[in-house]
Amino acid sequence: MVSQPDQRVRMVPGTADIGGLRVNYAVSDNETIPFNGQPPQIWAVNIHGYFAGGGMYWRESARLAGGLGWRVINPSLPGFGGSDPLPWNRLSMSGFADVIAGLLDHLGVGPVVVLGHSMGGAVATQFAFDHPERTLGVVYRDGAATASWKERKSILAKVISPVSPDLGAMCDLVSGVALDVPDMLIGRARSTLRGVMPDARLNLRSVADALPVGAMLFASDLTTEVDHVARDHGVPILPMWGMYDRITPRHTAHEFARISGEKVHWVRGGHSWMIARPGTQMRVLRDHEDGQSFMRRVMARVVPEGVAKLPVRRFPLPAAAAGLAGR
Question: What are all long-range contacts of 102-105, with beta carbons under 8 Å and residues at least 24 apart?
Answer without folding.
Answer: 102/16, 102/18, 102/19, 102/23, 103/16, 103/18, 103/23, 103/25, 103/45, 103/73, 103/75, 104/45, 104/73, 104/134
